[in-house]
Amino acid sequence: MTGLGDFFDDLVEDIAAVLLFTQDNSTYGHFAEADVSTVVVASDNAVDADEFVSLPLEFTDVEGRIRFGLEGALDQEFVEEGDDVLCLTQSFDENDLDTIVRIRADEFTRTGLYDLFTNSRPDADVVQDVLEVAIELGKKGQKGKPVGALFVVGDAGKVMNKSRPLSYNPFEKSHVHVGDPIVNVMLKEFSRLDGAFVISDGGKIVSAYRYLEPDAEGIDIPKGLGTRHMAAAGTTRDTNAIAVVLSESDGMVRAFKAGEIVLELDPEEY
Ligand SMILES: Nc1ncnc2c1ncn2[C@@H]1O[C@H](COP(=O)(O)OP(=O)(O)OP(=O)(O)O)[C@@H](O)[C@H]1O
Ligand SMILES: [Mn+2]
């Protein structure tokens, strides 16, 4: 015995739920039998849990992952604002539940990240595909040089109305979708040139080379971000689109919704 029993008893005392960041069946089995509600947070609901939060990205930072899981659990009303929750997740080895965090559900200010995927106009998997393209582009750049890119996703008709072409549209008569294997190559190629990609709710690439013309009035984004980020913020405020921006200058990927930055990640960490 370690004599640490009381300490660990306190850690689990009065928790309202366990957030389990794994799809491992035998681990889930233990928790399903215990007298506490268990929310599975994972990319798939392989264990067929009643309470499940779909994790659309591999969050490399534990805090971001927990935050996402909590926002999802709150949104689906598996937990309530004042609840204490125990999170079991991985820090050092992606296959090992090596980390226990006890946290109050409202301890974080909501980032809107969960909302970006689940309550947005475009399909969640489309948002996910676009983020992946941006991350990949950010990692590799174009022929070793950093590139920037701007993807506007969803509400494409309105976005097209609030923008104009900078050049011929290579996607004019095509039917390509983000997530198609060939698309990564095409998007990389076209991202060398100016303007934004416009993508439909369902993931069809509607246009490249669009110059966005939102109303710049009242847009409040961090200093140091330039016109590409301004255009992303403005367009997502004026339409129901979301936007994903890869910055050429600082290499970060940022997602915008309703005029605000809701996600900021470093492609090098993915
Ligand atoms: N309104 C717009 N619509 C579409 N694309 C735009 C718009 N404004 C800027 N861009 C694109 O962004 C590119 C970079 O512009 P700028 O440097 O001002 O943006 P930024 O926010 O600083 O982005 P980065 O961090 O990548 O430099 C431009 O060359 C252009 O291709
Ligand atoms: Mn710039």
From TrEMBL:
DAC domain location: 106-267
Keyword Ligase set for record: no
Catalysed transformations (reactions): 2 ATP = 3',3'-c-di-AMP + 2 diphosphate
EC number: 2.7.7.85
InterPro entries per record: DAC_DacZ (IPR014499), DacZ_N (IPR045586), Diadenylate_Cyclase_DacZ (IPR053542), DisA (IPR050338), DNA_integrity_DisA_N_sf (IPR036888), DNA_integrity_scan_DisA_N (IPR003390)
PROSITE patterns membership: DAC (PS51794)
UniProt keyword annotations, A-Z: ATP-binding, Manganese, Nucleotide-binding, Nucleotidyltransferase, Transferase
A single MF term (Gene Ontology): manganese ion binding
Cofactors that this protein relies on: Mn(2+)
Family as reported in the entry's similarity comment: Belongs to the adenylate cyclase family. DacZ subfamily.
Function: Diadenylate cyclase that catalyzes the condensation of 2 ATP molecules into cyclic di-AMP (c-di-AMP). c-di-AMP is a second messenger for intracellular signal transduction involved in the control of important regulatory processes such as osmoregulation.
Protein name: Diadenylate cyclase
Gene: dacZ
